[in-house]
User: Which sequence fits this backbone?
């Protein structure tokens, strides 16, 4: 959104300043989860881009080395209200299913100088986080809107993208979209597939993930 001055004939300079201020406020309020296209380098149905980064606690995180596990790459920021609203659901999901093969990499879009604030906020959460500016390489690029979560299957393919303006991160959506990607030997995966087939009366294939969940 680009703010422009109104013609002087339409009002006083004071009126124009107020209009400009309102425009900036509206733009700022929409930046957290604006309905924009996601980064074209991470496309659903395509191999996930490269991603390697050191977490805030010094642990190396390499997406390629997590092959065989289901990975959620979650992009967020401490100033993003919508991000904070979905993080408890991510944390609960990670705690419950990490042992079954679920991984989460949280990439903070905060400025490098705010690293301490990021670490402090993540202190109450169980999944690892890193600064997006530390990622080398980062094939996902910078997010065009926040929050944004990519779901990557055990073969390293992007199977879904989750965001407030599309499919939000909720406990139900995580169960419906992510759990079916777990290897069949895990009871959670079998149970979810059975429930989806029963509820929707249709065949279910682990590689077919709905782009949207209709409540």
Assistant:
């Amino acid at each position: 959104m680009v703010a422009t001055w109104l013609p002087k004939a339409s009002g006083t300079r004071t009126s124009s300043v107020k209009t400009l201020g309102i425009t900036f406020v509206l733009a700022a309020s929409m930046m957290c989860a604006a309905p924009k296209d996601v980064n074209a380098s991470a496309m659903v149905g395509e191999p996930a881009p490269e991603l390697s980064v050191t977490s805030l606690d010094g642990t190396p995180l390499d997406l390629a080395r997590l092959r065989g596990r289901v990975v959620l790459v979650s992009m967020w920021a401490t100033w993003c209200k919508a991000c904070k609203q979905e993080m408890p659901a991510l944390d609960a999901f990670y705690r419950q299913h990490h042992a079954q093969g679920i991984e989460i990499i949280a990439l903070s879009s905060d400025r490098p100088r705010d690293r301490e604030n990021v670490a402090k906020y993540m202190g109450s959460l169980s999944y690892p986080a890193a600064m997006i500016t530390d990622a080398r390489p980062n094939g996902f690029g910078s997010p065009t809107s926040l929050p944004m979560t990519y779901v990557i299957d055990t073969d390293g393919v992007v199977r879904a993208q989750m965001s407030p303006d599309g499919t939000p991160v909720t406990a139900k959506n995580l169960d419906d979209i992510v759990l079916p990607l777990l290897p069949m030997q895990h009871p959670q995966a079998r149970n979810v597939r059975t429930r989806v087939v029963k509820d929707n009366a249709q065949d279910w294939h682990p590689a077919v993930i709905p782009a949207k969940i209709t409540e």
User: Anything to note?
Assistant: Confidence is low (pLDDT under 50) at residues 1-31, 33-40, 193-215. The CA atoms of residues 51 and 88 lie 24 Å apart. Strands lie at 52-54, 60-62, 70-76, 102-108, 129-131, 148-152, 158-162. The first strand starts at residue 52 and ends at 54.
